[in-house]
Amino acid sequence: MLAVQFYDVVLWVHITAVVTAFGALFAYPLFLAVNAKAPLRERAGFHRLQIAFSKKVTGPAIGVILLAGAYLATDRELWDEPWVTISLVMLFAIAGLGATILRRNEEGMLSAAEAGDAPAYALSFGAARTWTLITLAMIVVTLYVMTAKPFA
Ligand code: HEM
CB neighbours (10 Å) of residue 29? Predict the structure, then answer.
């Protein structure tokens, strides 16, 4: 059918924003590991990219996820559904982690790489890897909750 409901357009925007915000994060565990094999001072470039991506892409895209999600939930009167509440809480938690612990450790790896400080790099690297994996797990769980809609 050619007739497309506005709701479906917003759903498409919502899902596109999810891919834009979080897609690249799924490559981070591999990128971090490969980058850590380079000479210390050469590792800085990747961390600069991570920080820029987080600020310029993930942050704004999370805003789009939230606005489009809020429209969908309002249009279909879904605010009482546990899968909407859980996803809302998860989105704030993921955004919070990205702007605090993850950002701090990415900046820590950047400054340690620039300073040639291997022990400081190792410390931030370990924390960044752990929290990146936790964030990815939270994204995967939220994708399940949004699509399978448990407790509905
Ligand atoms: C990390 C956060 C989020 C992810 C990964 C995500 C992902 C998705 C996906 C993949 C769908 C398509 C599901 C389907 O059509 O069966 C969807 C639909 C939807 N999302 Fe989200 N979403 C997130 C956050 C939110 C938030 C915060 C809200 C509300 C404020 C929200 C409200 C909705 C609604 C109402 C639908 C439409 C469900 C339907 O029409 O059946 N989402 N989301």
Answer: 13
d(CA 110, CA 45): 8
Cβ burial, residue 1 (10 Å; 0-12/13-18/19+)? exposed
pLDDT at residue 4 is higher than 90: no
Is any ligand 1 atom within 6 A of the Cβ of residue 70?
Answer: yes
Atom of ligand 1 nearest to the CA of 81: 35
Task: Encode pLDDT of 38-77 as tens digits.
Answer: 999 999 999 999 999 999 999 999 999 999 999 999 999 9
Half-sphere CA count of 66, side-chain side, radius 13 A: 14
**Which DSSP string corresponds to 59-90?**
HHHHHHHHHHHHHHHHHTT-TT-HHHHHHHHH
Pick the residue whose CA is nearest to atom 31 on ligand 1. 69
Contact predicate 30/147, CB 8 Å? no
* Cα 20 to Cα 57: distance, rounded to the nearest angstrom: 7
Torsion angle in degrees (nearest 10) through CA of 38, 40, 45, 51? 120
